[in-house]
Specification:
It is a single chain. The protein has about 325 residues and is an alpha/beta fold. The chain is built from ten helices and twelve strands.
Length: about 325
C-alpha cells in the first residue's frame, strides 16, 4: 500500500553518480561497432558490470563470451572495460580475430605500470579482489612478479626477494579507505615500499565514494543502484555503512526496492555505481516519489569533465581485415 506524501520526506541525489568516462567509452564503443560492422560483435566478458547494460546490448546484437574459443574464427571481438591479459590478445590472433580494445585507459595505465616495474625487476604487490577480471588482466602482464593482496589479512604470509625493490599497485575500483589501510599495513612490513606515480584508484571511484559519504552523514537510508558483480557499486554500499548510514542497500533497479526500508526514514540518499545508466536511477526516483519522497535535492561533491576518445580500431575496416587474416589449418 502506497502511503500519502509527507512534506518533509526528501531524496538527496548524489552528483557525480553513474557512468564514468571509461564505462561511457566502452558502451558507446559496442554501439558504434554494431552500427559500423553489423551484428554480431563478440565481447569477451561483460563490457561493464551492469545487467541492464548487458541485456540492452545483447538485444542490439552483441554476444558476450567467457573465453576466446567461443568466438568463431574471423569474427570481431571486443575486450571489455576491465582489460585482459596478454595471452588473450595472443589467443585472438591465433583465431584470426579482429579485435577492438575497449579497456578503460585508467586500467591500461595500471597495466603499463605493472610491465614497467616488472622490467625493473620489482616485486609487485597488487591490491585487489581475487577473481575480478581487472585483477586477472593486470596480473597477466607480469605473472612472475605480481602477488595479489586481498586486504590487510593477506599481508602476514607475503615474502619478497628484495625489500628495497617492492611496489604496490591496485585494482581501480576499490574503496579508497580500504586500499590505504592495506597500503599502510604493507608499509609497516616493507618500510621501503614504493608507491605508483599516481594512485591507481580511478577518479570516478573516488568521487562516487566521497559523494556517498556525504549522503551517509545526512540520510537514514542510502540506496546504491548497481549490480552485485560491480566492485565499485558494492564498495559504495560498504563506504556508506562505514560513514554512518543507519542502512544502505544495493539494488539493480527499482523492482528490487523494499517499502519496509522506508519505515521511519525521512531522508533517502540515492546514488549509482560507475557502470549504471541514469535510466535506472530515474526509475528509483519515480518509485520513491510514489511513496512520498517527491522533494529531490542534488548533493554535488565534484565536477567531472573527463572524456576518453573511442578505441582507434573503430576508425578502420575490421571486417575487411578479418577476412584477410590467415585461418588456422587442422
Amino acid at each position: 500500500m502506497i502511503e500519502p506524501p509527507v512534506p518533509d520526506r526528501r531524496v538527496l541525489l548524489a552528483a557525480p553518480r553513474g557512468y564514468c568516462a571509461g564505462v561511457d567509452r566502452a558502451v558507446v564503443a559496442v554501439e558504434k561497432a554494431l552500427e559500423q560492422y553489423g551484428a554480431p560483435i563478440y565481447v569477451r566478458h561483460e563490457i561493464v558490470h551492469n545487467k541492464y547494460v548487458v541485456r540492452t546490448l545483447e538485444k542490439k546484437g552483441a554476444i558476450f563470451v567467457d573465453v576466446t574459443a567461443e568466438v568463431p574464427e574471423g569474427s570481431i571481438m571486443m575486450f571489455s572495460a576491465h582489460g585482459v591479459a596478454p595471452h588473450v590478445h595472443a589467443e585472438a590472433a591465433e583465431r584470426g580475430l579482429a579485435t577492438i580494445d575497449a579497456t578503460c585507459p585508467l586500467v591500461t595505465k595500471v597495466h603499463k605500470e605493472a610491465v614497467r616495474y616488472a622490467e625493473e625487476d620489482y616485486d609487485i604487490l597488487l591490491i585487489g579482489h581475487e577473481g575480478h577480471e581487472e585483477v586477472i588482466g593486470t596480473s597477466g602482464e607480469a605473472p612472475d612478479h605480481i602477488t595479489l593482496v586481498d586486504g590487510p589479512d593477506d599481508i602476514a604470509d607475503i615474502s619478497v626477494r628484495d625489500e628495497s625493490k617492492v611496489v604496490w599497485l591496485s585494482q581501480t575500483t576499490l574503496s579508497v579507505d580500504e586500499t590505504m589501510e592495506t597500503v599502510d599495513a604493507l608499509k609497516e612490513k616493507f618500510p621501503h615500499l614504493t608507491s605508483p606515480p599516481s594512485d591507481d584508484i580511478c577518479y570516478a571511484t573516488q568521487n562516487r565514494q566521497t559523494a556517498v559519504k556525504k549522503l551517509a552523514s545526512q540520510a537514514e537510508l542510502v540506496i546504491v543502484v548497481g549490480s552485485t558483480n560491480s566492485s565499485n557499486s558494492v564498495r559504495m554500499v560498504e563506504v556508506a555503512r562505514q560513514a554512518g548510514a543507519p542502512a544502505a542497500h544495493l539494488v539493480d533497479n527499482a523492482d528490487e526496492l523494499d517499502e519496509t526500508w522506508l519505515r521511519g526514514v525521512r531522508t533517502v540518499g540515492l546514488t549509482s555505481g560507475a557502470s549504471v545508466p541514469d535510466v535506472l536511477v530515474d526509475g528509483a526516483l519515480k518509485w520513491l516519489a510514489e511513496r512520498g519522497y517527491e522533494d529531490v535535492e542534488t548533493v554535488r561533491t565534484a565536477d567531472e569533465s573527463i572524456t576518453f576518445s573511442l578505441p582507434k580500431e573503430l576508425r578502420r575496416n575490421l571486417r575487411a581485415e578479418a577476412a584477410e587474416r590467415p585461418r588456422r589449418t587442422a
